[in-house]
């Protein structure tokens, strides 16, 4: 990706290839930082361990459902991201007591317990006012995986805060993820950045470009003889 961006003529002032004040920039080198954030969330009573297997969660996804939001078996869906976690492992006890039992996140999945009914509201630089309700539009989400790797939601919040990011620009498919991340920011007492979600690039059928559209990949277009100016001018 760095090579493709460089070919397009895009330059950056800091990053894994040029260094900078807020390194390291490779997530594989930032584990200690992620562990620290996991501990903060755990001690604050926001996390709980989840032992549900992929097979069990896959069974939820394959259950018959009538609409994109609610199934015959009471299953709610988080847009196109799959079924909402039903809270199988959500503890009844005060989750702060868990902090005394776990010194490491390894071995289980860790989920952020969303405050049911809380409306997460933010202003997007492109799409305007946004509102998602915890427990209605999304459920308890993973922040650490059982294979001892931080999940996306925790990693990006930890990195953006540490690197003093003030504006996040990304695709519209991550609007719902923004609501989850705002809850993490609030749990940690950190100020959230400003948000700008770009419309997705679509193909001729109105579907967003993905790996299956290899013929439209930047590198492929370059190999076909297109110039960076031509690629940047495509609409």
N to C succession of SSEs = HHEHEEEEEHEHEHH
**Which sheet architecture does the biggest sheet show?**
4 strands, antiparallel
CATH architecture: 3-Layer(aba) Sandwich
Helix content: 25-40%
Q: Count all strands and give the number.
A: 8
What average pLDDT do the residues reach? 88
- Could you say how many structural domains there are in total? 1
Low-confidence runs = 64-73
Distance between the termini: 21 Å
Description:
This protein is an alpha+beta fold and 235 residues long. The protein has one domain (27-232): 3-Layer(aba) Sandwich (Rossmann fold). The protein has seven helices and eight strands. The strands form three sheets. Strands 1-2-5-6 form a four-stranded antiparallel beta sheet. Strand 7 (167-171), helix 5 (175-188) and strand 8 (194-198) form a beta-alpha-beta unit.
